[in-house]
Amino acid sequence: MKFKAVIFDLDGTLLDSLQDLANTLNSVLADNGLPTHDIEEFRYLVGYGMDELVRRALPLNLQNQQGLLEKLQQEMLEHYAKTWKTHTTPYPGIDELLDWLDTTPIKKGVLSNKSDRFTKLCVEMLLSPWKFDRVTGHHSGISHKPDPQGALMMAEELHVDPAEVLYIGDSGVDMQTAVAAGMYPLGVLWGFRTKEELLENGAKLLVEKPQEIIGVLSESNK
């Protein structure tokens, strides 16, 4: 298979953002007298979008209290606007991978369940040396992953067939998205979730370092 485009997930794939997400939400929870979570718990809370992150972080008996949810979600957005890049940084080796991709005709996109505002901000500020053809986060016109809508829209915008897209992510949600969109699901092992979760949700290939993706793309495009 010759890949003409790659679509990256953002958090847990390109950027290690877990500490900032955890610290920010824990601060909001504590301010409201609610239980907080350790960093390892956040590995399984993130990945579904900011609103869902807040909901999942609440005790079960509070998760459907709409007024409380909306209050906390608004506070999370306000706090995160100030803290989102305190610790967040590209994973080791991402620079080398993106440097290499910039020398090829392979198109690059970022598709995240993070809000569109913060997705674009993260890419503009933390991945500015590299060219991305499309960057999309969640907004009113797009469904959250694993719905394939966003991935298919991006393939259309990049003028490539879905089967020609290498979809790269760190979670079961990403692998489900790739499978549903008819793209090739590649799971990364440096992110937030486990090898088992990636395989159970359709990963066809797993890599331990970003440099391995260079090998995958080089081999496929010979």
Outline the structure in words:
With 222 residues, the protein is an alpha/beta fold. 46% of the residues lie in helices and 16% in strands. It has ten helices and eight strands. The chain has helices at residues 18-31, 39-45, 50-57, 66-83, 94-101, 116-126, 149-158, 172-181, 195-200, 211-220, and strands at residues 5-8, 15-16, 89-90, 107-115, 134-138, 165-169, 184-188, 205-207. Helix 1 crosses helix 4 (66-83) and helix 3 crosses helix 4. The protein is globular. The termini are close together. The relative contact order is 0.18.
Task: Give keywords.
single chain, 222 residues, alpha/beta, Rossmann fold, DNA polymerase, domain 1, 6-stranded parallel β-sheet, two-stranded antiparallel sheet, 10 helices, 8 strands, 46% helix
